[in-house]
Amino acid sequence: MQIKFWGVRGSIPSPGPNTVRYGGNTTCIEIRAGDELIILDGGTGIFPLSQTLFPELPRHIHIFITHSHWDHIQGLPFFVPIFIPGNDIHLYGASDPVTQQGVEHLYDVQLQYSYFPIREAELNANMHYQSLFPGEVVQVGDVTITCVLMNHPVTNLGYRVEYQGKSMFFTGDHEPPYNLCKPGEEDWDVYEDLIQQKTQDMDTIMQNVDVLIADASYTTDEYGQKQGWGHGTYDTCIAMAKRVGAKQLYCTHHEPMRSDDMLEKVFEEAVARCSLDMDFGVQLAKEGLTIQV
C-alpha cells in the first residue's frame, strides 16, 4: 500500500513563501493498493492530484470524505476526472445530520450557478454516491475500509484502510472528547462514562495500525483558547498513537497561520516533551511525502 499527501493544511489554503516546505493545500491523501485508487478528502490538494491521473483515465476512483467542512471538500468541483466521460467516481461520506441529505449534497451544494458555472447534472463522469454510517465497512476490490465516528462539531468519519495485512487510519478532524461538566456537577459521571465508551470505540478501530495520520492543529497552549473547535494537539495525537499501538504517526492539519519554521519549532518541542517511552516514529505530514506500507 502506498500513501501520498497532497494537502496537509487546515481551515484555508495558505500558499506563499512561508509554507513552501510543507505546502499550502488543504487536506487530501492518495492511497494506492493494487489496482485500486482511493482518495481521502477533497481539499484543494485534490486538484494537483487530479492532474497526475490523465495517463490512466478512464478508471474507477473512490473518494472517502471525512466531513463536510470547506477545507475537506472545496477541491471537489475542480477534480478534473468528473468532467471526462468514461470515468466512474464513487463518493462516500456521512449524511448531513441537519438536512438528512445523503453524501451527494457535497456536490449539489457546491455546483450551483451561484457558486460554480456547471451543475452536478452536467458532469460527464458516471457519479456514484454512498452515504455511510459509523461502523460501516466498504469493500473496494481487495481493500477494506472501515469508518468510525470521531469527535468534531459536524459528523466526522475516521477511516481505517486495510490491504494485504497492512493498515492505515486517518482521523480527519478530531478533538479528544472532554467532559462538558465540572467535577462535582450532577452529570459529570454520565459524561465520563460516555467519553470512555467513545474513546474505546475509536481506539478499537485504530488498534495496531501501521500508519496513523491525525489532526494536530494546535499546541497545548493554543488549545486552551480553542477548546470545542474540534481539533487535537501534538500531545494528544502522540498520546493516541501510544494508546492504540500505532507504528508510525504523521501529524497533519497544520495551522494555516503557522510558517514552516514555526511549525517545525512547535513540533520539536512537543516531541521532546512526549518522547519518554515512545516506541514509534512521529513526523510532520508534508505535501508530496510518499509512504510505502
How would you describe what is shown here?
The chain is α/β, with parallel strands linked by helices. The chain is 23% helix and 26% strand. It contains 7 helices and 14 strands. It has a 7-stranded mixed beta sheet. It has a 7-stranded mixed beta sheet with strand order 7-8-9-10-11-12-13. Helix 6 (234-244) packs across helix 7. The longest helix is centred in the last third of the chain and has 19 residues, at 188-206. The termini are close together. The model has no long low-confidence stretch (mean pLDDT 96).
Major β-sheet profile = 7 strands, mixed
Sum up the overall morphology in one term: globular
Average pLDDT score: 96
Euclidean distance between termini CA atoms: 5 Å
Listing every helix as H and every strand as E from the N terminus to the C terminus, the arrangement reads EEEHEHEHEEEEEHEHHEHEE
Q: Name the helicity range.
A: 10-25%
With strands numbered from the N-terminus, the spatial order across the biggest sheet is 6-5-4-3-2-1-14
